[in-house]
Structure formats: C-alpha cells, structure tokens
Amino acid sequence: MAEQEKMNVKRGNNFGFMFFNFALRTAGLKHARRMAAVICVYYLLFDWAAVKRAMPYARRIMPDADFFKRLAFIYRIFVNQAWMLLDRAAFNAGLIPFTHTSTGYDTFAGLAERHTAGVILLGAHFGNWQLAVEGLKKLDCRVNIVMSPETNPAVKTHLKINSAAGNIAYIFTDGPDHGCVEIASALCSGEVVCLMGDRAYGADTVEVEFLGAKAGFPYSAWLIAAKTASAVIPFFVCKHRERGYHVRCDNPVYPEMERKQAAAETVQPWVGQYVRSLEEVIREYPEQCFIFSNVWKR
To answer: Which whole-number Å values give the CA distances from 234 to 48, 120, 137, 152, 296, in the listed order?
Structure first.
C-alpha cells in the first residue's frame, strides 16, 4: 500500500496540476494536449509499473503484435487518459464547451428521478467517466459515488476527489464491509449508486469470457441489486469527436437470486452481459480503456 501511494504522488503532484491549469488558461486545450503527449513519453520510458499493468490488455487487443507495437499502443492509451483529464479540467473551468449525444440516458434519468427504487449505474475504467460525474449533478436525485479514498493530497485538491457537493455524495470502500451497508441503504432509499464493474480490488469475482479468454469480474453490485430490488444499468462515456462525447446507458437489468444456486453461479449471466457491452465499446474505441489490471490472471 505504501508503495502504491508513492507511485500515486509521483504521477500527480501540485506542480503538475498547476502547470496544466496554467497551460489550459494561457495556451488553450490544443497546446495543453500536446504538452501532455510529450510528458507521456517520460511515463512510457520510466514508469514501468504502469506499463506492466497495461500490457495484459495490450496483449489481448493486439495478440499478433510485437512488443514495440504494443508499447506504442500503451503510449496512446496514456495520452488518451491524459487528454480526458484535461477535457474535464477545461470543462470545469468553463474554458471549453463540449457536446454530447446519448443512448438510453433518458430511460436512466427517468428511473433515477422517480425515487421509487434504487438504481446502480455500473461503469468501467473506460472513456471519460470522470466527466460523467459532472452530468450526474443535474439529476433531481441523490447520487452516491463508490470509490476508495484518494490518498494523494494534490489529486484531492485539484480534481475535487472525495468532496461531496450538491446532490453528489461519496461512499468509501475502506471500511470493514467495503461500503456494502451504505450502498444497500442508499438503494433502499431510492437513490442512485455509481460504481465500477471492471476491477475487483480484492472482492469476489466470477469468470466470464472477455476479449477471447476467461477473466474475473466482481459481482457484488448484482447481488446487492437483487437483495434491494434495484435496477442495474451499465454505462460508458466514449469520446467520439474532438470535443464530443457519447453517453451509452444500456437497458435496465433487474437481477433476481435463485435459491438453489450459488451466488456466483446466479449472477454470472448478468456479469457476462455487462462484459459484452464493455467489449463492444472497447472494440470501437480500444485506446480509451484504462483497466490497467490483469483481469485474466487466475
């Protein structure tokens, strides 16, 4: 854990955030992106911990490519991630307007604002999910973001991580129950809960087919939804133009538990359905996937 915190500080510090905020305001988004692309070369060459975590995904996307082609692909992932953070910063500062289209968002918003049942918005480390939080602030309901507490002071200060505001609240997973009681309570109150469905962080997983091989994905969201009679809606935010994003919300799923089946066996089809949706957006935008975890490791 201490080693991870050191890496977090190295990748995000006050000077870096202040530099790019200054660059955005003085040079504009286009030139700030160019600067970020140059800095990503440094991380590609010297941050081998990050490269190593991205490599399993690169192997699945490019099974026939050599090491250097995969390395170039990982570099483009790093650049895309940096650009999405810049987009969020530019949007929050009111410097650049972004357009967006959506599929299924009205259905999700209608369910969320009825306040009659809870809704789990199941995202992934894909696209500009940080920017999606800004859109959720417009909903007429309480939205709970499930996440680990941010330990990097610079990230907390400049990206406003862990800071509740308006209708946005946070549920942290560092407690003994990993936030499950708070999640269930929020859903029983008819609130929205947003969490990631692609990284386990030590939680129980179920194996499903993902990019040509068996991979482990967490299933606790589906269990909680079944126990609280809540809907689960997979969602992804894809960047499809220079200043345009597409928000994809799948149809609501209402999982139910089978008494004679084990929990993992019961939820496996729903997890598989979510993963197939994730695969669809990955195939279309492969350089916008930021899983950075070997989910295929058994």
So the answer is: 32, 8, 18, 29, 21
* Cα distance between residue 257 and residue 222, in whole Å: 9
Beta strands 213-218 and 205-210: pairing type? antiparallel
pTM, entire model: 0.88
- What phi, psi does 110 have (nearest 5°)? -65, -45
As given in the structure block, the two tokens for residue 282 are 């990955």
- Give the pLDDT of the chain (298 residues) as one tens digit per residue: 334 434 443 555 666 667 778 888 888 989 999 999 999 999 999 999 999 999 999 999 999 999 999 999 999 999 999 999 899 888 888 888 888 899 999 999 999 998 888 999 999 999 998 888 888 888 999 999 998 765 445 455 545 555 556 889 999 887 777 788 999 999 999 999 999 999 877 778 999 999 999 999 999 999 999 999 999 999 999 998 888 899 999 999 999 887 777 777 888 999 999 999 999 999 999 999 999 999 998 6
Residues whose CB falls within 8 Å of the CB of residue 240, separated by 6 or more in sequence, listed in order:
101, 246, 285
CA–CA gap between residue 4 and residue 1 (Å, rounded):
5
DSSP-assigned states of every residue in the chain: -HHHHHHHHHHS-HHHHHHHHHHHHHT-HHHHHHHHHHHHHHHHHH-HHHHHHHHHHHHHH-TT--HHHHHHHHHHHHHHHHHHHHHHHHHHTTSS--EEEEESHHHHHHHHHH-SS-EEEEE-SBBSHHHHHHHHTTSSS-EEEEEPPP--HHHHHHH-TT--BTTEEEEES-STTTTHHHHHHHHHTT-EEEEESS--TTS-EEEEEETTEEEEEE-HHHHHHHHHT-EEEEEEEEEEETTEEEEEEPPPB-----TTS-HHHHHHHHHHHHHHHHHHHHHH-GGGB---S-TT--
